[in-house]
Design goal:
single chain; about 280 residues; alpha/beta; Rossmann fold; 8 helices
């Protein structure tokens, strides 16, 4: 599947082109889902599902929500979803954040527009914003670089924040900025959960043994899957990442390593890092 996605991004680097192909290819199944009444109205049709992992999203989301709850997430909390996509996590959280609030932002406008129309309309305490930030795949016309992006929220607004499968597609400079901004908008004592592909002795050994699902290699100082399109998948050196977290104002609390590099046991596919706002 990674090879298929890699090939698709090389042949059709423009996201809108890939989305049009996806919508055409999935239109018969989407029509059947509508006819049979078997699609959750808070979830996008197959043709708009650009965030990946559709097959196992329900199990993955349940595990992640359980993980958040275990870290103290309460129904009255304010939650920030960094890189919310088309609202897949929000669709599950509506049953949990019954008296709290949710804010999500993403660089793909079609995702935040769809989520606003189909989730916010039914759950006004869930809101979605488009972040007009440059990405060569998803938002190539934007002028603002991720390294300079300021989150559109005031200081100390959130009890919880999470970035699921976001830092895995960002350069180190962009990750540092997102960590700084995350710390700015989270209350002291609040929690952030982020996922990454952490490069450490174990993951390097497994990559070199060809046990990893991602054949990351070093190109110009970055661990990447595709040198032509580095943002496809980026690994971050674990010691550097922890230093960035501390410099931003976080205390790393726990790391649950993922299965991406072929390790076992594991909690999820990507490495999950829990951070406490100092």
């Amino acid at each position: 599947m990674n090879l298929i996605r890699l090939a698709a991004k090389r042949i059709f680097p423009d996201f809108q082109s890939r989305l049009r192909i996806r919508r055409i290819a999935n239109s018969p199944l989407d029509a059947l889902d509508t006819l049979m009444g078997r699609r959750n109205p808070l979830l996008p049709p197959r043709g708009l599902w650009f965030v990946g992992g559709r097959k196992n999203y329900a199990t993955s989301n349940e595990l992640f929500i359980g993980y958040l709850a275990g870290l103290g997430l309460q129904p009255e909390h304010a939650v920030l979803d960094i890189g919310c996509g088309i609202g897949v996590m929000a669709a599950r959280l509506v049953d949990y954040l019954t008296i709290g609030r949710y804010e999500g932002f993403d660089i793909v406008r079609v995702g935040t527009d769809w989520a606003t129309a189909h989730i916010t309309s039914k759950h006004p305490n869930f809101r979605f914003l488009h972040a007009d930030v440059y990405n060569r795949h998803y938002n190539p016309a934007a002028a603002v670089q991720a390294e300079a992006y300021t989150f559109p929220y005031a200081n100390g607004q959130f009890d919880f924040a999470f970035a699921k499968s976001v830092f895995t597609h960002m350069t180190p400079q962009a990750v540092e900025q997102y960590l700084r901004e995350s710390a700015r908008v989270i209350k002291p004592g609040g929690t952030a959960i982020v996922s990454a592909f952490l490069i450490n002795p174990e993951s390097i050994e497994l990559i070199q043994a060809k046990k990893s699902s991602l054949a990351l290699s070093i190109e110009d100082g970055l661990w990447v899957l595709d040198p032509k399109f580095p943002e496809t998948a980026i690994g971050l050196l674990e010691p550097d990442f922890m230093d960035w977290c501390r410099a931003a104002g976080f205390q790393p609390k726990n790391v649950s390593y993922g299965s991406w590099c072929g390790r076992s046991p594991y909690l999820s596919y990507q490495d999950l890092i829990v951070l406490t706002r100092i």
